[in-house]
Amino acid sequence: MSTLVAYFSRAGQNYGHGGIIDLPKGNTEILAEAIAADLGADLFKIDTVQPYPTDYYATTDVAKRELRENARPAIQGPLPSMDGVDHIVLGYPNWWGTVPMAVKTFLDSVDLSGVTIVPFCTNEGSGLGGSVNDLKRTYPAANVVSGLSVRGTDAKGATAKTVAWARKSIKA
């Protein structure tokens, strides 16, 4: 059995420290890479075919529209093999209280039967929002466990804590 670390992350303009900051690498990506390296897991970045706008506020508008429409934006492939995968450590930013719709595109595209989803999200104060309950409701074939919320601006300093949480969650 194996673990896959799948994540959606956005570099560039993001909200942090009370205003717009420019990130050379997305906060969720920093944590996902650390988890995959520690676990020796495969890493899959969920990238949309149509990039989100560069402007932070324009991106939030698109994300809000996608959520309202229950959209499934196309993602780049190829998808990772799920053969033997028993855990997906799933990373994402909290967008409008839940997972970005591109994450749902990914989850809709893979066989989740018997898979445990171990979710973590980055945010600037909104925590996990309703994302864990949303994942449980939308993907009943998977076992969705309690998630971890990490403040995005603390991501670089939270890698050890996040890796320890992932290790513990997979062994539980």
Comma- or semicolon-separated keywords:
about 170 residues, alpha/beta, 6-stranded parallel β-sheet, two-stranded antiparallel ribbon, 5 helices, 8 strands
Structure notes:
This protein has 172 residues and is α/β, with parallel strands linked by helices. The chain is built from five helices and eight strands; from the N terminus they run βββαβαβαβαββα. The protein has helices at 27-39, 56-68, 101-109, 131-138, 159-171; strands at residues 2-7, 12-16, 19-23, 42-45, 85-93, 116-123, 143-144, 148-151. Strands 1, 4, 5, 6, 7 and 8 form a six-stranded parallel beta sheet that branches. α1 (27-39) crosses α5. The longest helix has 13 residues, at 27-39. It is globular, with a radius of gyration of 15 Å. It starts with a strand and ends with a helix. The mean pLDDT is 96.
The average pLDDT is 96
The whole-angstrom Rg is 15 Å
Tertiary shape:
globular
How many strand segments? 8
H/E series, N to C?
Answer: EEEHEHEHEHEEH
* Oligomeric state of the chains present here: single chain
Report the sheet with the most strands, covering strand number, pairing sense and barrel closure.
6 strands, parallel
